[in-house]
Write a structure and sequence with these properties.
768 residues; rod-shaped; 4-stranded antiparallel sheet; mainly alpha
């Protein structure tokens, strides 16, 4: 059919043929393709929506579980321990709705896991008491979610399964064999995985499962006893070694601490005393704004208000009637308790060190006393031996001098005898001369006689007168010769007598000289023997000193330190420090009692306090009650009844908090003690601080050890007595002994210089 214009209906040009089969097929293909895209987009969007909703619900449920756990911990600090039973790794899983309750005609119930999480009525997640119905209720239930919340929970999450894992996460301290560290309990890792139960059943996994993890700080109530002990050990404060180091730096200019006059142990003992003063002063300054009488504390400025000042101010009625000030007052009271307890904790290891050092020092003190007594006896014995030997030595010296005198006299006699003998030489010479002259005259007389005889025999003979004259002359010559000979003989005889006399006197003199020399030699030998005795005595004494070397080398140091300690603990100005320290148990208990009453008044006040503030006050009340019971060592029935009352007030609003306040270890002293062993040890020492008969009273023990009747004072008294007996002063036995040693040094060449120096050094050590 053609139009007037030659066009076909629809504006198609005239004469154009209709669609071919190919075009029809192609057209249907295009339409089918477009429809496919449209259908795919529509169905994909719906699937994506379902996946998004599943993932959203999974994430929402995971977050809701985590927040619910945090909320439970906030209200009940023991929640984690009750949930996990103290296991380091705990897992649990379950559906939101208990499948066994989802039957015809039965009211749907939360699964045991969620019942425990939302409406806990017991410590076991699967206990019958936790299987509460969540059927629609006419009113708001006493605890747990409302009926509307239950219905929403069932409608939106009934297909979801939740897996929860709690595990120790971070070990804040490397384990020390053989005891592993329990501090990894301090941080828990909470992992929540949510998946659809139907997907898990059909595919074994849910592609839209969602895992959310977080970390939780474990409250003290949920820690094990081991972790509590390790945690408490970590808050002991500055170690004693560190305190010593800081003190030595502060007193670096003091010669007692900077020089080598004292050993490290002695320096630490002296530092202990000053550290006690500093600690007490600091606590007093912070509490009252003034230091202990007679001492100072190194603080640059005066605080605007002291702890006691704030307590007095906030205790006035115009402030105390407001809840906020009650809570503030409780905080300040806790600061006061902490301040006193921290001071006590710092002093406790010092007291322990003083006690331990005394126990190790006592044997040394006994050794020193024994050594002093031994030295005293040795000094007295040696002095007696020395004086006796010196007397013998001096007697031998007299004998030597007498022998020398006699020897000199004998030598003089020998010289005189030799002079006599020498004086005979001229006599012998004169006798020889006279004999020579006599011999000459005799020869001359013989010659004259021969001449006279010749004259008489001459023929004719000579005149008789001449012959007689000649004979007379010869006779006279002969007589003269005989006289000369007699004179010579007489002279010789005289010389012989004098020589014999001289020889005799010389022999006698030589005998006297030999006797004198023998006596002198014997006296000198006696001197040598007495010197040897003295040297042996000195050697024995040095041996004694060397055997007690350490004690004697340290005797001056120990006496100095012991005297300081005895004076320090006995001086009147230290009494104020003692009184303040011994007041800590009373003040500590009083502050806890006041804080307990303040918190109770705060919780009893209906208006003016926020729920969070009251929650914190309720927790503080539990902690205060725990410490008060541990400090007193007995259950505080009044405080426990007060906790029951406060717990009842929170039963309708915060069921976990009410459960925490009305049950748990605070109501069981045996369990409370079992979990706080290390803390109880400190409290026991604090409680018995003023009881000298109690073994836990370290301060009383220190006073007994270092006080007026202690071992240190006994040592000082004994030392003074022994020193007095030895008379270690000018002109004493020791001084005289040292003088004798110096004399011996000059007279005994065979004593080595080393031995002499040892003796003198030993004398010097004792004399100090």
């Amino acid at each position: 059919m053609k139009t007037k214009s030659g066009q076909r209906p629809g504006g198609e040009p005239a004469g154009r043929p209709g669609m071919s089969l190919v075009e029809v097929v192609f057209t249907f293909a295009m339409v089918a393709g477009l429809l496919g895209v449209v259908m795919h987009f529509f169905l994909g969007t719906q699937k994506q929506s379902v996946n998004t909703e599943a993932r959203f619900h999974s994430a929402l449920l995971a977050q809701m579980v985590i927040e619910r756990v945090k909320s439970q911990i906030t209200q009940n600090p023991a929640f984690l321990k009750e949930l996990t039973g103290g296991q380091p790794t705990w897992t649990s899983s379950g559906t939101v709705v208990d499948p066994s309750s989802a039957v015809a005609g039965a009211g749907a119930q939360l699964s045991p896991f969620f019942q425990f999480l939302f409406a806990k009525n017991g410590q076991d997640a699967y206990a019958p008491a936790n299987r509460v119905s969540i059927a629609p209720a006419t009113g708001t239930p006493a605890s747990g979610p409302t009926a509307a919340e239950m219905a929403s929970l069932i409608d939106n999450f009934k297909d979801y399964r939740v897996e929860v894992k709690l595990e120790n996460d971070v070990d804040l301290e490397p384990p020390q064999p053989p005891t592993p560290s329990s501090l990894n309990e301090l941080v828990k890792k909470l992992t929540v995985t949510v998946a659809r139960a139907t997907a898990m059943a059909a595919q074994g996994k849910d592609p839209n499962a969602f895992t959310l993890a977080t970390r939780l700080t474990t409250p003290v109530e949920s820690l094990s006893s081991t972790a509590l002990d390790q945690l408490y050990k970590g808050f002991e404060g500055t170690s004693l070694d560190t305190a010593w180091e800081e003190f030595f730096l502060a007193v670096g200019d003091n010669p007692y601490f900077s020089d080598n006059y004292l050993g490290l142990d002695s320096k630490r003992l002296l530092a202990d005393c000053y550290l006690i003063l500093g600690t007490i002063n600091t606590e007093a300054f912070l509490t009252e704004g003034s230091t202990v009488a007679g001492n100072v504390v190194l603080i640059e400025s005066q605080p605007s208000q002291t702890i006691n000042g704030w307590i007095t101010l906030l205790s006035r009625q115009e402030y105390y009637r407001h809840p906020v000030f009650k809570r503030t007052l409780a905080k300040i009271l806790s600061i006061k308790v902490k301040n006193q307890f921290d001071a006590f904790k710092k002093i406790l290891p010092i007291l322990q060190h003083l006690s331990d050092q005394h126990d190790s020092m006592a044997p040394r003190l006994d050794n020193i006393i024994a050594a002093l007594n031994e030295a005293k006896q040795k000094i007295i014995q040696l002095n007696g031996q020395t004086m006796e030997a010196m007397n013998k030595y001096h007697a031998a010296e007299v004998k030597v001098a007498d022998g020398k005198k006699k020897k000199d006299e004998a030598e003089a006699l020998v010289a005189a005898a030799e002079a006599i003998i020498a004086a005979t030489a001229p006599l012998y010479a004169r006798a020889a001369q006279l004999k020579t002259e006599a011999d000459s005259l005799k020869r001359e007389a013989d010659t004259l006689k021969r001449q006279a005889d010749q004259m008489e025999a001459t023929t004719p003979p000579l005149p008789q007168a001449d012959i007689d004259t000649a004979k007379e002359l010869a006779r006279k010559k002969k007589e003269e010769a005989d006289v000369k000979k007699q004179d010579a003989d007489r002279k010789k005889e005289e010389a012989d007598k004098k020589k014999e006399e001289g020889e005799k006197k010389k022999t006698e003199a030589l005998e006297k000289k030999a006797a004198a020399e023998g006596a002198m030699a014997a006296a000198q030998a006696e001197m040598v023997s007495t010197m040897a005795l003295i040297q042996q005595g000195m050697t024995d004494f040095v041996t004694v000193l060397k055997g007690r070397g350490e004690e004697f080398m340290k005797v001056v140091e120990l006496v100095t330190v012991c005297k300081f300690l005895a004076d320090f603990f006995a001086q009147p100005t230290y009494r104020a420090v003692v009184d303040r320290l011994l007041s800590y148990p009373v003040w500590f208990t009083q502050a806890l009692d006041t804080m307990d009453q303040t918190l109770a008044d705060h919780l009893a006040q209906a208006d003016g306090a926020t729920p969070l503030d009251q929650l914190m006050a309720a927790h503080a009340l539990v902690e205060t009650t725990k410490i008060r019971q541990l400090m007193k060592g007995v259950s505080d029935d009044a405080a426990l009844a007060r906790l029951q009352t406060v717990g009842g007030q929170y039963a309708s609003r915060m069921a976990p908090l009410a459960s925490y306040l009305r049950s748990g270890e605070v109501h069981d002293l045996t369990r409370l003690k079992a979990r706080n062993g290390r803390f109880i040890q400190k409290l026991n020492v604090l409680r018995n601080l003023g009881d000298p008969q109690n073994p836990a009273n370290l301060y009383g023990r220190v006073i007994q050890l270092y006080g007026a009747n202690g071992k240190v004072t006994q040592f000082l008294n004994t030392y003074t007595q022994v020193a007095s007996e030895i008379r270690l002063e000018s002109g004493s036995i020791l001084t005289e002994l040292q003088r004798q040693v110096q004399t011996i040094r000059q007279q005994m060449a065979y004593i080595s210089n080393a031995t002499q120096e040892e003796i003198l050094q030993a004398m010097s050590i004792i004399k100090k």
